[in-house]
Amino acid sequence: MLNERVAYVNGEIVPESRATISIHDLGFVYGDAVYDTARTFGGRLFKLPEHIERLYQTLRYARIDPGLTPAQMTQKTEALVAANLPLLGEGEDYWVTQRISRGIARYEGDPVPYEGATVVIECVPLPLKGRAHYYRDGIPVATPAVRRIAPEALSPRAKTTNYLNMTLGDLEVKARDPKLWAVLLDHNGNLCEGIGANIFVVRDGVVMTPKEDHVLPGISRATVLELCRDLGLPAEERDLAPHDAYIADEAFLTSTSLCMCPVSSFNDVKLAPVPGPVTKRLIDAYAQLVGLDFVAQYSSRL
Amino acid sequence: MLNERVAYVNGEIVPESRATISIHDLGFVYGDAVYDTARTFGGRLFKLPEHIERLYQTLRYARIDPGLTPAQMTQKTEALVAANLPLLGEGEDYWVTQRISRGIARYEGDPVPYEGATVVIECVPLPLKGRAHYYRDGIPVATPAVRRIAPEALSPRAKTTNYLNMTLGDLEVKARDPKLWAVLLDHNGNLCEGIGANIFVVRDGVVMTPKEDHVLPGISRATVLELCRDLGLPAEERDLAPHDAYIADEAFLTSTSLCMCPVSSFNDVKLAPVPGPVTKRLIDAYAQLVGLDFVAQYSSRL
Amino acid sequence: MLNERVAYVNGEIVPESRATISIHDLGFVYGDAVYDTARTFGGRLFKLPEHIERLYQTLRYARIDPGLTPAQMTQKTEALVAANLPLLGEGEDYWVTQRISRGIARYEGDPVPYEGATVVIECVPLPLKGRAHYYRDGIPVATPAVRRIAPEALSPRAKTTNYLNMTLGDLEVKARDPKLWAVLLDHNGNLCEGIGANIFVVRDGVVMTPKEDHVLPGISRATVLELCRDLGLPAEERDLAPHDAYIADEAFLTSTSLCMCPVSSFNDVKLAPVPGPVTKRLIDAYAQLVGLDFVAQYSSRL
Amino acid sequence: MLNERVAYVNGEIVPESRATISIHDLGFVYGDAVYDTARTFGGRLFKLPEHIERLYQTLRYARIDPGLTPAQMTQKTEALVAANLPLLGEGEDYWVTQRISRGIARYEGDPVPYEGATVVIECVPLPLKGRAHYYRDGIPVATPAVRRIAPEALSPRAKTTNYLNMTLGDLEVKARDPKLWAVLLDHNGNLCEGIGANIFVVRDGVVMTPKEDHVLPGISRATVLELCRDLGLPAEERDLAPHDAYIADEAFLTSTSLCMCPVSSFNDVKLAPVPGPVTKRLIDAYAQLVGLDFVAQYSSRL
Amino acid sequence: MLNERVAYVNGEIVPESRATISIHDLGFVYGDAVYDTARTFGGRLFKLPEHIERLYQTLRYARIDPGLTPAQMTQKTEALVAANLPLLGEGEDYWVTQRISRGIARYEGDPVPYEGATVVIECVPLPLKGRAHYYRDGIPVATPAVRRIAPEALSPRAKTTNYLNMTLGDLEVKARDPKLWAVLLDHNGNLCEGIGANIFVVRDGVVMTPKEDHVLPGISRATVLELCRDLGLPAEERDLAPHDAYIADEAFLTSTSLCMCPVSSFNDVKLAPVPGPVTKRLIDAYAQLVGLDFVAQYSSRL
Amino acid sequence: MLNERVAYVNGEIVPESRATISIHDLGFVYGDAVYDTARTFGGRLFKLPEHIERLYQTLRYARIDPGLTPAQMTQKTEALVAANLPLLGEGEDYWVTQRISRGIARYEGDPVPYEGATVVIECVPLPLKGRAHYYRDGIPVATPAVRRIAPEALSPRAKTTNYLNMTLGDLEVKARDPKLWAVLLDHNGNLCEGIGANIFVVRDGVVMTPKEDHVLPGISRATVLELCRDLGLPAEERDLAPHDAYIADEAFLTSTSLCMCPVSSFNDVKLAPVPGPVTKRLIDAYAQLVGLDFVAQYSSRL
Fold it and tell me: What tens digit of pLDDT does each residue of D158-189 get?
């Protein structure tokens, strides 16, 4: 019986401890890679088709041919999750990621190890324990001075592995307090996004989030916007300034792993106690949609 | 006797075919890595101290602790080159790269494979044959529409592996002609840089190149500026517009591997026959400095 | 009987070969002129009132008094078309242009030839043969590196003769392939416009085109938006990034002469075979509206 | 004997009243033209080689082949001046302009009137009388709200006929007072240039003017910078903000026709009485260099 | 009986002539203060709750604790108006302002005069006579060259006392004509706002005003948007370029004191006679809403 | 004998506790005021002429007439310092400030209290005790997300009281740690300035500070640049990115009160132990120039 998770690497299923890529892989050498990450709820993948569609959009943008059709990518992803399910602990869930690089850098005179892209699929456990406190206390959000890369240089709507810009933002705020969660401003100084997270603010009952012109169009973000429609909550995709966050009634982050998590403060200015009523209502609807009380899932690790 | 190149990976010397990193390495997962590349001339490393100094500046900027002092990094680099020298073909030379990621992504409940950064050092042969035509015909340079990332998001002076922005520029121009070499414009629309290459233009005897505010301060670029001083050629670091390239008398690119190579056209507008007299004079001085006629080295592969 | 087309020049009808303006005309000297261009379908002018309205908006913006009321301008335009109709070849149609400069530059001591603006109206044959291949193969679109003039310097909504910015974009892409059609990016790096052409992309059944804040509000563009309403196709005027073009299902250009023509590739990346289903549906509706199968009109010249 | 000035039009010398271009000339249709303007002092051309060199740089940038070598263009220009000299009034001088468009727009089925560019050379009298008051009172300078076109869209260093942006600036300030001279700000909000004029400010004895990155590198501007060197006056090419003008000790404009003329006020804020001592010293040196007291030449028309 | 207006200063009601603040007050020293201004109609405060809400948003943004709840601030404001009502002249009305600074600058060793914020509430008479001509002639609007502060530096939605940027714009246009009213452009060159005034343009029956992303969300502006809804007039909050003003059918300004006042010209280009029909209709509805014919109120002072 | 400091307010010398301005003063109402601050060393004013010159430049820029000549302003400043000298504690020194507003807001029907500007001159004790720890530990500098106002909106070279932009930056960093000193980035993302402080970085022996295009040209900053010249230290005024701070060998702040104080960390990344050797050398020279060991003066309060 399996006692180690397995990963998909270029057509083979291997134990993670032996799941490696060449030091010449372009994803490692030049960040020449893209990815997408879904998660499971109670072991079941959520909105995998949406994730696969976004992955293939990013591949088109990066002009990488993964060598697999979307249907094949879906099938292999599902198979990998199935293979790893027995190792999922009680009450745990998986992050499920496809990561695709342009392949191996070629050097003159060297043999060609294989043609085409490098495709990796992996399951890793969600950081339930490490983030549990955020569901109790809310997430303290801070805006670093470093700005998000402008779309004219690299589209924020493409999910690539070039995260150093956001990593620098995260390092800047975490250096002062490891609990802080960085939300970078875009090149115009509006609220943009953090590492893998979209931000929402609520004011006078209106739910607002930055336009996808400047942020990754998160699947969880889209889920919240759909829930707003279902619940009859007015929702807007619009430019949001720091001013909007300072005067917000409520705020929350969304991400594949977080789903939704309330924000407790913005640049060390406290918001109202969390979760606010609109956030609470959306969290409840989100949990119902995915069939799992993710707040309880996180909180049970406290 | 060695019949395969070896690489340094986290303290060990391994054959390249077995030189791998984990699929969880942050350099692969999030492009969370930096690097620097020197080259050999006749098997001897050139300006390694300058490369090592720039590498450690980038590490400071990225807040990555490589776990090695500059002296240790230098020693291990030199040792690796020595180990691979026997495999260097007649008239060939090596690219020598240190690549350092922040380490392995940690997942809850997983064992910790090792602490700290991932350090890779590798030697790969220079693409002498593939680029030989550039020394005969000059490099046709084109500016893609995609702009270089602005310094307020990511410093161009830090040599990180987040190259997708430049890769997109390269894909844009190579899709129309694989021989084209992309030189991106910066966020102000001035001449910036290409993948690993700085651009120079010459007009009325003045040698000009973009300021390091917007480009990687290439070691070869610095070498050319020093040679200008030695030769009494006026040289300026200044903002250069496409207009400067359209009306230039001469232009050339510099990079670690190219050293200096003349530019034949700019956006399909022919410049004067290459190499121009100033470029030729600098190439000769460069070859003398490094003790190897690199033009002949490349051209012999035609 | 007339064997040469005639033009209207400052109140007179003259054969085109003798239709001239002074070398001191401000339209020639300083580009101090505006224009608008309609076309005929089967010899009948289409949406002339809309073109005249836009022309007079541009005149107000440029503070040029044409010395004619909109009604007079309309009447003289219609009269000129009528005069030239006999010379229209079988299956051909006319571009019909009003071009108005601020008049003649005055120099000290010189006599004043006439007061006020220079008004030219002309009919020229549409380039049916030269563009026929675009209707068979689609238009390969490319984005040059040169950016469109920002609205804070010159309004893109005013149709002036200051086209050098767009001409530079066109020269940049045509130097590499004369079939390429340039679509410049705006100063934010979003899709903007080409010489006399608006761009549309289609994704998931939604028809999208840049907002008129950054482009000329083309009459054909407006026609397509009206057709979308009539056909129940969702349509949006919004900022569009190159990313939108790379992942588009379909794309097309609109212009007075083209009406609508499918786009085959974007920066040398192929889109799906042309015309796509939404484009086809709009083309059919467009042809019905104007009472002429313009695709057949162009294609018959192949 | 000649009683009307003549002009050069495409190889022929014609009286100005019959010097015309086709209404299909691309310079008139699309502003697809470039030019340069020198002036005479006492009937003698000043710095014609510098003007011709700049003209050919602009032609390269615009990719227009004039069909004449620089030497031919020079010869034809000098010949035209010689032909018109007899008509030059007592104490008058000429503006001498080469204007070159890309040629005639081609329409399908139309005969081709001629190949290649349209070349016009003309002499017109300087506006001595109209501007005389500026030498007595100084020039009141105002900055319109409209900004100069950014270099990433159109190089300010290329002297093209696309002047509408500057014309709009001029209209904006002249609508409130016809004596005002517009100096536009660049896209960063720094002092840029007016129609055919560079601005200089003087503070604490230092003569400063905007860098040629953002302005036309005027021949008169260069002349002033050379005179500064000759006179030992410190001079700087640098970004200048409106703040620099508000606190300036002196300011002046330079242009081919003005040579140098003091500025009396900036946005209706008076500067010190004109001309200031540094301006006066430079004017005297300028007059000596060109061999004509241009201030007296203008002032005699009062 | 009271023969001088009184003001509220830090909890006390004092005659205005003795209503002072320390020279060390941070509002005076560093502009470290915010405010809001309502007005009376026939002595009755209009939309005070909306003004108080905006004031408290600005206080949150500036992180100033006024030491009073919104209810207390409201009560004290109403009490002050009541106290000053007897001094209101026939047909006059009051501007009613709360101005709150962060308090007193503290210097080492100095005694602390009081803790916390400085709160001032004051009533001053509206400038009915001084502005009466605007209701007869319309307001001539001009755009200065100085740009509005970008939101990334200071939110335009926060009503702070840092008005120097707008004051500079006002000085720039008033220096040429004291009747001109400055409307600054934003950092993108779009129509923004003037001192305490929002701008609206009307074209083809559509009422348009800049988005609140770039301007103070005026209470009068909101009132007009509500009236548009009530009257069935289409209204849009969108980016507006100077082009929109040049081609507008009508334009008007709104402010607390003006309510609505027609614009007669834009940069000295006349608009149609004022008030236009849409403006007139909105003015009438506005007057009805507030229960006072403010046009008559102003005009009676002519 | 005097037991309270006095201030100059509009021509009168009054005890500070009674030194007040009207609540209608434009400096309080609209931040319509400018200022300058010198300091004493051992009771003697340092570089007062330079401060007065900058004050009058700012007054010109703001178009405020103070009603006093520079000589009068100087004399009144010196007199005020003399009057307050007896109250200066052992080893203490004064900040000496002129603050000038445009005067009193005028309201219709109100009497005019006085004409012209409000002029305040004051002496306050330097915060020696509160800042002493910075000289022992160095100053921890942090860059807030809020950007400095761009020069096109308000010149950073004018010393006005509109400090809210910098106050917001300071609040942002002090909310997380009251010891942090904010240095804002400019609108391009380069290092700019903090409240009343310029930043310098030192690398490879070169002393660098941002150009005065983007910062207040501090008198202490100029003093350091002069000392560099005197000591033969290479010094550059240039754009500096955060990258420059992250890789700096040393850094320090300058201000009138601080003179020079070493920086210990940048965004929580430690620099080398403070003061570095170049900083130390400059501090010693600075102390010698002003005739007072200001480090000892501060440190004695620990």
Answer: 999 999 999 999 999 999 999 999 999 999 99
Same domain, E70 and E136: no
Say yes or no: A260 and A162 in one domain: yes
Contacting chains of B (3 CB pairs or more, <8 Å) are: A, C, D, F
- Which SS3 state, helix, strand or coil, does residue C67 take? coil
Interface of D with F (CB under 8 A): 185, 188-190, 239, 241-243, 246-247, 269
Give Cα separations from B167 to A62, A117, B164 (angstroms).
9, 15, 5
Residues of chain A in contact with residue F142, where contact means CB-CB under 8 angstroms, are 176
Average pLDDT, rounded, for chain C: 96
Band of residue D290 on the pLDDT scale cut at 50, 70, 90: very high
Query: Measured between alpha carbons, how far is E102 from E109 in angstroms, rounded to an integer?
Result: 20
Q: Among the three residues E126, E144, E177, which one is the final residue of a domain in this structure?
A: E126
CB E230 within 8 A of CB E218: no
Residue F115 pLDDT exceeds 90: no
Looking at the 3D structure of chain C, how many domains does it have? 2
Find how far residue A36's CA is from the centre of its chain.
Answer: 8
| Confidence band of D234 (pLDDT split at 50, 70, 90) | very high
Amino acid at the residue F69: T
Q: Which sign does the torsion angle of CA A221, A222, A226, A232 carry?
A: positive
Among B126, B150, B170, where does a domain finish?
A: B126
pLDDT of F109: 86
- Tell me the angle at which helices C277-290 and C219-231 cross, rounded to the nearest 10 degrees: 110
Instruction: Kindly state the tokens that stand for E288.
Output: 């009805």
Q: Are residue F208 and residue F146 in the same domain, yes or no?
A: yes
Stated pTM of the model? 0.97
Contact check, Cβ <8 Å, F61/D246: yes
Q: How confident is the model at residue A2 (pLDDT cuts 50, 70, 90)?
A: low
Residue A1 located in a structural domain: no
Domain annotation covers residue F1: no
Instruction: Note whether C44 and C137 are same-domain residues.
Output: no
Contacts of D189 in chain E (CB under 8 A): 147
Q: Distance (Å) from the C-alpha of residue C100 to the closest C-alpha of chain E?
A: 18
DSSP label of D240: -
Whether the CB-CB separation of D56 and B249 falls below 8 Å is answered with: no
- Confidence (pLDDT) at D115: 84
Q: How confident is the model at residue E260 (pLDDT cuts 50, 70, 90)?
A: very high
- Are D267 and E143 within 8 A, CB to CB? no
**Which class for B273: exposed (0-12), middle (13-18), buried (19 or more C-beta within 10 A)?**
exposed
- pLDDT, residue E115, reads 85
Verify whether the Cβ–Cβ distance A155 to C243 is below 8 Å.
Answer: yes
Contact A61/C239, CB-based, under 8 Å? no
Report the C-alpha gap between B219 and D225 in whole angstroms: 35
Average pLDDT over residues A113-132: 94
Please report, for the domain that includes residue A280, its CATH number: 3.20.10.10
Residue A207 lies in a domain: yes
Nearest to E246 among C61, C152, C153 (CB): C61
The answer to whether residues F51 and F182 belong to one domain is no
Of the pLDDT bands very low, low, confident and very high (cuts 50, 70, 90), residue C2 is low
Structural domain harbouring D175: 131-299
In chain B, % of residues over pLDDT 90: 94
CATH number of the CATH domain containing E21: 3.30.470.10
CA distance B200 to chain F (A): 21
Residues B50 and B16 in one domain: yes
**Do residue F118 and residue F189 come from a single domain?**
no
Q: Do C242 and A63 touch (CB under 8 A)?
A: no
Contact: F246, B151; criterion CB under 8 Å: no
Give residue B30's pLDDT band: very low, low, confident or very high (50, 70, 90): very high
What was the pLDDT predicted at D111?
Answer: 83
Residue B1 domain-assigned? no
